[in-house]
Amino acid sequence: MQDYEHQAKYYETDQMGIIHHSNYIRWMEEARMEFLNTVGFPMEEIEKEGIVCPVVSVSCDYKKSCRLNERICIHVDVARYNGVKLVLDYRMYEKGSGELRAVASSVHGFLTKEGKIVSLKKAYPALHQVLMDACVAE
User: Fold this and answer.
1) Cα 79 from chain centroid (whole Å)
2) Where exactly are the structural domains of the chain?
3) In this structure, are residues 12 and 20 in contact, taking their beta carbons and an 8 Å threshold?
4) Which letter, b or e, does each residue of 114-130 get, where b requires 16 or more Cβ atoms within 10 Å of its Cβ?
5) More confident of the two residues 137 and 69
6) Which of 14, 61, 77, 89 is catalytic?
7) How far apart are alpha carbons 97 and 61 in whole angstroms?
8) By CB neighbour count within 10 A (0-12 exposed, 13-18 middle, 19+ buried), where does 138 fall?
9) Residues 29-58: pLDDT tens digits?
10) Which among 20, 77, 108, 115 counts the fewest CB atoms within 10 Å?
11) Average pLDDT over residues 17-38
């Protein structure tokens, strides 16, 4: 997947003139949605199948602050996937310099809209295969 690019906005800054830490999590969500679009399974299509994909956990290690108007590229990898749980890794870097700004991950489950665990291998085999093929773990 081509890296997702986000230009840091004024409203994302704090009183110190740097991007507030909570925005990195939002950027991860933007990059995840773009990843799903790129592999041919936009979230709207997944939800039409009766499947939701909640965030189970999220972590972010901040390496260096992002600032207003910087272009931040976010690389997404499928770190692990077992049919019911998806782990995505993110590397956020400044476009011009290539300087690493944050390393993060998010864990997602797959559920029916009623809250029951879903095995994508059975419920949505096409998406299952795409995630298996994209997985970087050996």
Assistant:
1) 11
2) 4-134
3) yes
4) eeeebebeeebeebbeb
5) 69
6) 14
7) 19
8) exposed
9) 999 999 999 999 999 999 999 999 999 999
10) 115
11) 96
Q: What are phi and psi of 58, to 5 degrees?
A: -150, 145
Residues 6+ apart with CB under 8 A from 110: 51, 52, 53, 84, 85, 86, 117, 118, 119, 120, 123
Q: Is 133 among the residues known to form the active site?
A: no
Does CATH number 3.10.129.10 belong to domain 4-134?
yes
Question: What is the Cα 71 distance to its own chain's centre?
Answer: 17
Question: Residue 54 — φ and ψ, nearest 5°?
Answer: -70, 155
Query: What is the model's pTM?
Result: 0.93
d(CA 106, CA 29): 9
Considering Cα of 29, then 84, then 56, then 78, what sign does the dihedral take?
Answer: negative
Q: What CA–CA distance (Å, rounded) separates 115 from 10?
A: 38
